[in-house]
Amino acid sequence: MQGPSISASDLARMGNRAVVWGIVAIVGVLALAAVALFLHLPDAGAFNARVERVFVENADLTSQAELKLLEILAQSGTAFSETLISYRVVIFVLLVFATGLLITSFVVIVVLITLNRRMVQVEKQGLQVSQLVIDRATNTVALNDMEFRLTPAAVETLAVLAEACIDDEVLTGAAIESVISGRDITDCDEAAGATRIKRLRDTLGNQLISEVLVRNIARQGYMLAIDRKVISLR
């Protein structure tokens, strides 16, 4: 019995919900941490309040040295207050920066997980191709909404695989080389056809497309993993 399948739209919705809840969780945790941190920071006016208390409780301090000491204490309290205010600003900026980094990292991780799931699904179900147009005259290949300009040899290899797919056949490397070169299959080497397949995949470039589109069936040969009805040769 075939297990339940997950469509791309389902994965997208799951990924969006995960991103939203993850961002909410990150912002919530950092907000709580910020509130706790700011609540436990000392009051910027605490030092000045203590200095003012010294002035009030020691009104009999009238000598020049004692007044100078009190003035220094007052200036120290002001400097302490300004330092605490600057610390609060720095901590706030760092928290905002940390929030941005955590959200960005979380989104990237979720996107990578979603893409990995999608790649696994594509590998299991095959590449969803709605149209494959091979134009030998211009050496171009149109795959869905993507267009590739290939070398003549790569186009010919892909065309041979497409014709075999239409006939519901699997071609060995020797058979591919035989069709392209026009020689008898007994005179062709399996490695020559395998080399043509490798060059075709290298020309396509995209690993996901090349590996999934051109399938290698063990001990049988090569084939296109698409519906033959979508193939068009020109």
TrEMBL record:
<dbReference type="InterPro" id="IPR001867">
    <property type="entry name" value="OmpR/PhoB-type_DNA-bd"/>
</dbReference>
<feature type="DNA-binding region" description="OmpR/PhoB-type">
    <location>
        <begin position="124"/>
        <end position="226"/>
    </location>
</feature>
<keyword id="KW-0812">Transmembrane</keyword>
<keyword id="KW-0472">Membrane</keyword>
<keyword id="KW-0238">DNA-binding</keyword>
<feature type="domain" description="OmpR/PhoB-type">
    <location>
        <begin position="124"/>
        <end position="226"/>
    </location>
</feature>
<protein>
    <recommendedName>
        <fullName>OmpR/PhoB-type domain-containing protein</fullName>
    </recommendedName>
</protein>
<dbReference type="InterPro" id="IPR036388">
    <property type="entry name" value="WH-like_DNA-bd_sf"/>
</dbReference>
<keyword id="KW-1133">Transmembrane helix</keyword>
<feature type="transmembrane region" description="Helical">
    <location>
        <begin position="89"/>
        <end position="115"/>
    </location>
</feature>
<dbReference type="InterPro" id="IPR016032">
    <property type="entry name" value="Sig_transdc_resp-reg_C-effctor"/>
</dbReference>
<feature type="transmembrane region" description="Helical">
    <location>
        <begin position="20"/>
        <end position="41"/>
    </location>
</feature>
